[in-house]
Specification:
This protein is α/β, with parallel strands linked by helices. The protein has helices spanning 46-53, 79-85, 97-100, 107-119, 123-136, 142-146, 155-166, 185-198, 211-217, 235-240, 245-252, 287-291; strands at residues 4-15, 18-30, 35-39, 62-69, 72-73, 90-93, 173-177, 203-208, 220-225, 228-234, 297-298, 304-305. The strands form two sheets. The protein has an eight-stranded mixed beta sheet with strand order 6-7-8-3-9-10-12-11, with helices on both faces. A four-stranded antiparallel beta sheet has the order 2-1-4-5, covered by helices on one side. Helix 4 (107-119) packs across helix 5 (123-136), helix 5 (123-136) crosses helix 7 (155-166) and helix 7 (155-166) runs parallel beside helix 8.
Length: 311
């Protein structure tokens, strides 16, 4: 049984302009101990997918499908059951630590709160656990840092705090949302190594637009575009032999691969293009791409792609 099995998941937001189809019939599995990178351009729906898993979307969101975690459908849990699951069984490393951390609480107290809630430790035990977590996160002068407020820390240090907090309860599954966003190259490299080391042996969904970071951390990569998955394969296969034209273009846009941007912009999630959603920007588009919607095609070695060229 997979650690997480997402089945026919849709997440839609009603707006004045129409229904935003942020996640549109997504199927995705993550096995025990597997780390999966979910990549795509900003606005493709990947963060909404992550927030749907832990049920942190706004109440007006229309969600359909199933999210099976260890045999239980998370969408069927009560609010209290989900509160205990969130941050306990399922750890979260949220993006933008500047806004995610409470500015009026010391960072050590914020980690201790999570430890006490989910591990049932008293204050003294929680303080010891906080020191262990800060040391594991390679934070120098851990006792001093624990007494500081978020505004006193650098961006890289705050990201380390978020990682320590996300792993505080020893979760079986971790969701990391854009953990390298906004970091300079040196700090990003340090955070990538830290996440890789601290999530070893755990299942993880890493949501990112940073394909290079996903390639270093993850076993598998799924590519998302306009609310749906376009490609799913091992990290090595996606990086060395991408099958979907969008993935090929995404890789060419990396600084290390030529810095060649994909022409055009992502389509509206209210009124996505008919047929293949990528066809208006695709250099290999055929007539069929404009009229028919491609299904995921299974290729060799567990490689899947949503493209008529692969059919």
């Amino acid at each position: 049984m997979a650690m997480l099995d997402i089945i026919n998941l849709t997440a839609q937001f009603p707006t004045q302009d129409g229904l935003v189809k942020a996640v549109d019939v997504v199927d995705l599995k993550i096995e025990k101990g597997e780390r999966l990178g979910l990549i795509g351009e900003t606005g493709c729906g990947k963060t909404v997918l992550g927030m749907a898993i832990i049920r942190l979307l706004q109440p007006s969101t229309r969600i359909q499908g199933r999210i099976i975690y260890k045999g239980r459908d998370l969408l069927d849990l009560s609010a209290e059951e989900m509160r205990l699951m969130r941050g306990g069984e399922i750890g979260m490393i949220l993006q933008n630590p500047t806004t995610s951390l409470n500015p009026v609480l010391k960072v050590g107290d914020q980690i201790a709160e999570a430890v006490q809630l989910h591990l049932g430790l008293d204050k003294k035990q929680a303080k010891v656990r906080v020191a262990e977590l800060l040391a594991a996160a390679m934070i120098p002068e851990a006792p001093k840092r624990a007494e500081q407020y978020p505004h006193e820390l650098s961006g890289g240090m705050k990201e380390r705090i978020m990682i320590a907090m996300g792993l505080a309860s020893q979760p079986s599954f971790v969701i990391a949302d854009e953990p390298t966003k906004g970091l300079d190259a040196r700090t990003k490299a340090e955070i990538v190594r830290l996440i890789r080391d601290m999530t070893s042996g755990r299942s993880m969904l890493m949501i990112t637009h940073d394909l290079a970071a996903a390639g270093e951390i993850c076993d598998r990569i799924a590519v998302m575009y306009a609310g749906e998955l376009l490609e799913d394969a091992s990290a090595d296969a996606v990086l060395s032999d991408p099958q979907h034209p969008y993935t090929q273009g995404f890789i060419r846009s990396l600084p290390s691969r030529g810095l060649l941007p994909i022409p055009g912009s992502s389509p509206s999630l209210i009124d996505p293009p008919q047929g293949c959603r990528f066809h208006p920007r695709c250099p290999k588009a055929m007539d069929i791409c404009k009229n028919e919607h491609p299904q995921m095609t299974k290729l060799e070695n567990g490689h899947f792609a949503r493209c008529f060229l692969c059919a």
